[in-house]
Amino acid sequence: MRPCLTVWLLLPPATFGRGPAGAPRAAPVSIFYVVDLAKYAKAPFQEPGLVDTDVQKSCYYVATGLIAANVYLFAASQGLAAHFHNCDKQNTPREFKLRPEQRVLFAQTVGYPA
Question: How are strands ordered across the β-sheet holding 102-111?
Fold first, then answer.
């Protein structure tokens, strides 16, 4: 089965997909977490509950959190800073040329500590 959650990695200069005031505007690495809802519609689920859209939403939010936690742990082990944050959910999909069924969930910025 193909993954339903995609991680987009941007290398410098990462200046789009900005979050609210105070979120980094440029960083060595910006990670965007994107879900592809069309893949849920096509997937042959072994878990019957996954046909429910609320259960799907729970799954992709939990998956995002687990991946972000691992990114944070790796960054900390390397002496880097990591910031998990919201992003511009209206403009980022257009800048990434996402399909309508793909949704940007969150972003994570990794860089050198201030």
Answer: 5-10, 29-36, 102-111, 81-85
Task: Find the farthest-apart pair of alpha carbons in the chain and give their distance in angstroms, rounded.
Answer: 47
Lowest-pLDDT range of 15-24, 70-79, 97-106: 15-24
State the fold for domain 5-111: NADH Oxidase (3.40.109)
Report how far residue 105's alpha carbon sits from residue 70's, in angstroms, rounded to the nearest whole number.
17
Instruction: Report the C-alpha gap between 14 and 91 in whole angstroms.
Output: 14
Which residues have CB under 8 Å from 101's CB, separation 6+?
36, 37, 38
22 beta partners: none
Q: Model pTM?
A: 0.77
Comparing 92 with 6, which gets the higher pLDDT? Answer: 92
Domain boundaries, the chain: 5-111
